[in-house]
């Protein structure tokens, strides 16, 4: 069931989204060669504490997970696509890092992700990250009243495939509101003009995930959470929480 949010509720979600934006900015600024993923998790956790907000990630346990998620950020490095668990791993020169983060404030959730390169970038990684951001922008541009979920999926998939990148099947965006994952699912590839019509008050987490090697295969790591590319190539992830409004898409997690 898809819940349509009131304008007041969307404003409240914007407040949660701004906490997400501040935390991701703080993590990005702190990420450097030698900094551990656990240290970045603590920085994000501190942003939540100072804002009086909670984490929808910490303790989250969907049906596929062997254990509750133990952190407030998902930290995915190099061949990890999403859901990476922060560890004592210290960032190295040239690492490609994807950070996914959520905040809950007043019963409403914001969810966003960024990818970036630590130290000296490789040209191929720069292109991969830039394409993820372009795919996200294309998906947001298609998130207008009168379009359908398939239009968002097609916009994202077209950007990714045109650059020769893979798309992990079965993982994509989702509705968001009182809970981090709500209806409807938002695939990262699909046919235009198909799927649920977009209406004022729908709020979606739009999140392209790209596999640099061009194949779509992935597998779960032994921790049961981290998804890694089958071909060992690097991956990128970009995400915003977006409200569908009569005035156009409103990005609630803008940084």
From TrEMBL:
GO terms for biological process: proteolysis. GO terms for cellular component: cytosol. SUPFAM superfamilies: Creatinase/aminopeptidase. Keywords: Aminopeptidase, Hydrolase, Metal-binding, Protease. Substrate binds at residues 83, 181. InterPro entries: Creatinase/aminopeptidase-like, Pept_M24, Pept_M24_MAP, Pept_M24A_MAP1. A divalent metal cation 2 binds at residues 111, 174, 207, 239. It catalyses: Release of N-terminal amino acids, preferentially methionine, from peptides and arylamides. A divalent metal cation 1 binds at residues 100, 111, 239. Binds 2 divalent metal cations per subunit. Has a high-affinity and a low affinity metal-binding site. The true nature of the physiological cofactor is under debate. The enzyme is active with cobalt, zinc, manganese or divalent iron ions. Most likely, methionine aminopeptidases function as mononuclear Fe(2+)-metalloproteases under physiological conditions, and the catalytically relevant metal-binding site has been assigned to the histidine-containing high-affinity site. Its cofactor is Co(2+); Zn(2+); Mn(2+); Fe(2+). It is an enzyme of class 3 (hydrolase). Removes the N-terminal methionine from nascent proteins. The N-terminal methionine is often cleaved when the second residue in the primary sequence is small and uncharged (Met-Ala-, Cys, Gly, Pro, Ser, Thr, or Val). Requires deformylation of the N(alpha)-formylated initiator methionine before it can be hydrolyzed. Belongs to the peptidase M24A family. Methionine aminopeptidase type 1 subfamily. Monomer. This is Methionine aminopeptidase.
């Amino acid at each position: 069931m898809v819940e349509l949010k009131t304008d007041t509720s969307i404003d409240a979600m914007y407040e949660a989204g701004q906490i997400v934006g501040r935390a991701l900015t703080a993590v990005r600024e702190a990420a450097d060669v030698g900094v551990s993923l656990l240290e970045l998790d603590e920085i994000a956790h501190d942003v939540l504490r100072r804002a009086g907000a909670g984490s929808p990630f910490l303790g989250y346990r969907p049906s596929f997970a062997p254990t509750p998620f133990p952190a407030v950020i998902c930290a995915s490095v190099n061949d990890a696509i999403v859901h990476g668990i922060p560890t004592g791993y210290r960032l190295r020169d040239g690492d490609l890092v994807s950070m996914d983060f959520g905040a809950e404030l007043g019963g409403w959730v914001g969810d966003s992700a960024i990818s970036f390169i630590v130290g000296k970038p490789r040209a191929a990684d720069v292109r991969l990250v830039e394409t993820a951001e372009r795919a996200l922008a294309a998906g947001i541009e298609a998130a207008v009243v009168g379009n359908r979920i398939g239009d968002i999926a097609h916009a994202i998939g077209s950007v990714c495939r045109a650059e020769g990148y893979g798309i992990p099947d079965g993982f994509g965006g989702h509705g968001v509101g009182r809970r981090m994952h709500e209806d409807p699912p938002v695939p990262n590839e699909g046919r235009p003009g198909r799927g649920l019509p977009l209406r004022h008050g729908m709020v979606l987490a739009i999140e392209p995930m790209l596999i640099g090697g061009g194949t779509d295969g992935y597998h779960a790591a032994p921790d049961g959470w981290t998804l890694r590319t089958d071909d060992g190539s690097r991956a990128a992830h970009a995400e915003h929480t977006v409200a569908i409004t009569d005035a156009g898409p409103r990005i609630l997690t803008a940084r």
